[in-house]
Amino acid sequence: MKSNSDMLSLPYENEFFDCVLSYHSIYHTNKKGLEKAISEVHRVLKKMENFM
User: Fold this and answer.
1) Long-range pairs for 5-10 at CB < 8 Å and ≥24 separation?
2) Which of 19, 26, 41, 49 sits at a 20 to 30 Å CA gap from 4?
3) Do the beta carbons of residue 46 and residue 40 sit within 8 Å?
4) Are 41 and 20 contacting, i.e. CB atoms less than 8 angstroms apart?
């Protein structure tokens, strides 16, 4: 699934994905934004799955 959305507010339900891939994007923010982006990834990622 491809989507153009804000990494700080992902438009998906909790535990929606089996895997999340962030390629050359997540570091384009400040520390607070990075913490929020990682929090969003963990929110939409199914428990015990992969974040690459």
Assistant:
1) 7/37, 7/40, 8/33, 8/36, 8/37, 8/40, 9/40, 10/40, 10/41, 10/43, 10/44
2) 49
3) no
4) yes
- The token pair at 1 is 């699934």
Total length of the chain: 52
Element (H, E) at 35: helix 31-44
Residue pair 18/50 in contact (Cβ under 8 Å)? The answer is yes
pTM of this prediction exceeds 0.85 = no
H or E element at residue 14: none
Q: Per-residue pLDDT tens for 6-15? A: 889 999 999 9
Q: For residue 29, what is the DSSP state? A: S
